[in-house]
Amino acid sequence: MRWRDLRLWVGLAIMVLAMFAGAFILSRGEQTTTVWRASSDLSIGSVPVATPVTVALGEAQDQYLPANEPLTGRLRWPVAAGDLIPRGALGYSSLLNARLVTLPVDPLHAPVNLASGDIVDIWSTPAEAAGGITAKPVLVFSRVTVAEAAIDSVGIGGEIAVVVEVPADGAAQLVAAARSGLIDLVAVPITSQPTS
User: Fold this and answer.
1) What is the three-class DSSP state of 91?
2) Distance from the CA of 38 to the CA of which of 45, 74, 163, 178 falls in 20 to 30 A?
3) What would the mean pLDDT of 127-138 be, rounded to a whole number?
4) Half-sphere exposure of 37 toward its Cβ, with a 13 Å CA cutoff?
5) Which of 24-33, 37-46, 50-59 has the lowest mean pLDDT?
């Protein structure tokens, strides 16, 4: 009779230990952390706009920016809306020898909700040629960062002021294109931007 009692107690002890071990292992897999999630599509060079979100990342939690760290700096690569912001994504540095050029742009010739940090291609359509023939647009610059867009204030001619960052040796070309024709800004989608 004693032997049965001992087996009963040993079996009960093994069951209790197994339950605690299982609970410990399961709790480790369910640990959550709060990190930053992009609120909208974010382009290279943009200031991140993000919201904190609590997720279970397991071993990968060190790869993302925790929400208790401030979002300082600009993005080095694009982050799509809803994606978690990786730790290495911040630290964009602008062109070393850059110029900020202000362009007058008709609001209908610029992306809707144009904002600082957006990436655009700049096209210029020269004024009408002789005989009323419409000239073909010319790509002036590709993948240019918007430094500022005054979309809320319209100038005398109905244009908005858009400041773009270009290499110093290309500033004269851009100013000439703006003076000789109509400027169009074409958004470069986040899916077409380099990721590293």
Assistant:
1) coil
2) 163
3) 76
4) 11
5) 24-33
